[in-house]
Design goal:
two-stranded antiparallel sheet; alpha+beta; disordered N terminus; six-stranded mixed β-sheet; 5 helices
Length: 213
């Protein structure tokens, strides 16, 4: 994924929630699909990091390890359920917009149905979630209070608006039913709905093309 450039030497940056897959040794790998299409196995870890970047190469990784054994140590396995470790990194003060102060990094162990997605797992442990009219994940646990994948600077160095960023949003964020309200987003069931999966599939293709660009 790459975003339109702001000038010869500087790419446009966006403030958004990036989605990461836990990898071997507690490391992180930038996700190639959105969290509502990925259905992790029991023992997987999903990471969410609020970051400012122009592309996946520059996106901030979660600062807590993708350590399932540590995150889910107090959650015994249950028949018919799976456990997914969730790391939520709200970013640094430099990543924050305006006067907002990012909360501390959180780790949660989500126990969800066997067919649940990473988005379902997030919804189970980190409400309220907030989405925009295009069903892009804007806030986790109420952070940030406003804004959604905003362009930090345009070609003139000014703060971007929703209209100016419409064609260049970074990928890696959850999408869900666009009818979700601002008071918490859709339920976990809506995140897994067939119609939503179709929308997310298109979003995944878009993201892959942006990466190749």
């Amino acid at each position: 994924m790459s975003l339109a450039t702001a000038g010869p030497a500087q790419a446009q940056e966006y403030r958004y929630w990036a989605f990461w897959d836990g990898a071997a040794g507690g490391s992180w790998k930038y996700a190639t699909q959105g969290p509502a299409t990925v259905r992790p196995d029991d023992g997987a870890v999903a990471g969410f990091r609020f970051t400012v970047s122009a592309d996946s190469a520059a996106a901030g990784k979660p600062r807590a390890a993708a350590d399932f054994a540590d995150i889910c140590r107090a959650a015994p396995a249950k028949e018919g359920r799976k456990r997914i470790g969730i790391v939520i990194d709200f970013g640094t003060a430099r990543d924050a917009a305006g006067s907002e102060r990012p909360p501390e990094v959180r780790t949660e162990c989500a126990q969800v149905s066997e067919d649940a997605s990473a988005g379902d797992a997030l919804a189970a442990v980190a409400r309220p979630l907030r989405y925009d009219s295009n069903a892009l994940l804007c806030a986790i646990a109420g952070y940030p209070k406003s804004g959604c994948a905003e362009q930090v600077k345009d070609s003139g160095g000014a703060e971007g608006s929703g209209a100016s960023r419409a064609a260049g949003r970074p990928g890696g964020s959850a999408r869900a039913d666009s009818s979700a309200g601002d008071d918490g987003g859709p339920s976990a069931g809506l995140l897994g709905g067939a119609a939503v999966v179709a929308v997310l599939g298109a979003a995944a293709v878009w993201q892959a093309r942006r990466r190749r660009g």
